[in-house]
Amino acid sequence: RHGPGSHVVMLNGRGYTLMWKGSLKYSDAPPATQKRIDWVEGSLFVPPDGWFHQHFNAGHDPARYIAPTWGGDGKWFMRALGGGGRTHRLGKTSTRKGGNLIEYEDEDPAIREMFVAELKKNGVEVRMPAKKKSGKP
């Protein structure tokens, strides 16, 4: 999650993005804030301010996107995974250290189950390694 303003533009591929507010776990978030955005080449969406979100390539081909956002000087610039001010930089710091990045080991198991089901539905091989336990409840 990060601050507002990044406009996610899908350049190619097929998949979806999950967005949610509040809880670190998607399945624990209030149902009204659990959103799924299906995307294809040319799709555009803007994650709301402070919402967790995760992008999933569910197709056979690689997916690429850009996320133009405001720079500190008020001008647009391009960064592959967003950019901008302090709230965007927190997206690169683990929630374990006060940031906004949910570590792979801490990811909600429901998210992986959804992704695996989507890959199977599309005939795509699952190549993700098994999750390690984080040691957290």
What would your notes on this structure say?
This protein is an alpha+beta fold. Helices cover 12% and strands 24% of the residues. It has one domain. The chain contains 2 helices and 8 strands; from the N terminus they run ββββββββαα. The strands form 3 sheets. A 3-stranded antiparallel β-sheet has the order 4-1-6, with no helix packed on it. The chain has a 3-stranded antiparallel β-sheet with strand order 3-2-5, with no helix packed on it.
Summarize the structure.
This protein is an alpha+beta fold.
SS class:
alpha+beta
Strand arrangement, major sheet: 4-1-6
**Biggest β-sheet strands, sense, barrel:** 3 strands, antiparallel
How many β-strand stretches?
8
String of helices and strands: EEEEEEEEHH
What layout of secondary structure does this protein have?
Layout: E1 8-12, E2 14-20, E3 35-40, E4 44-45, E5 52-57, E6 64-66, E7 69-70, E8 76-77, H1 86-89, H2 109-121
Antiparallel strand pairs: 1-4, 1-6, 2-3, 2-5, 7-8
Structure keywords:
137 residues, alpha+beta, 3-stranded antiparallel beta sheet, 2 helices, 8 strands
